[in-house]
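ESCALATION

Customer reports they have been waiting on this structure for their group meeting. Please prioritize. Original submission:
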Amino acid sequence: MEATAIPRLARAHMGSALAVTALLLPFGACGLARTGAVPEGTPVVLALLSVIIGFVLLPALCEERAPFRHSSSHLTAHTLTGQRSVDLNRIATVRLLTNFSYGGVSRTVVVRDSHGVRLGITTERSRRKLRRAIEKADANAARGVPAPRVSRAARAYLAPAPGPGLVGHTVLAFLLMTVPVSLYVCVVLRLGGQ
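Update from on-call: job pushed to the front of the queue and completed.
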């Protein structure tokens, strides 16, 4: 592992910790509202802001942004938490992350290598590079080398012609996004006395 990878991982963990802290902030505000230290509506306002920050920012922390660098064995890109470089010869997991917005559905392929570095792949060029690395790893698995864990949805999305297998994943992703957000807001409203 390169010497600069540890500070990069620390920055990535710090970004995740900040997003989780933002999600927990309204619960602290509920306690302060009960003591009268802050106005009663503060937890609700913080909850709405926290949903935006936590549920939108958290997945975006590892997404690739320009400039990109590709080599035969690495994908390197800038992210919100700094530069990340994933070793394509040591892929551990690949999964598909689906988000929803007013513009429609956006998909990010999140690849993690054996060093623990995660990178969210968003460009076609990076997806092609990752697809070739997975095919190589699958070929090596036939010779007894452990293959990376690639989710069914990620395989379907990375295929040259994505098939209908993404429909089920999209519906499940929508439910897994809306149900926790709704429960989170309901709990904050209940604790806030609204």
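Sent to customer with the following note: Residues 5-35 form the longest helix (31 residues).
Escalation resolved.
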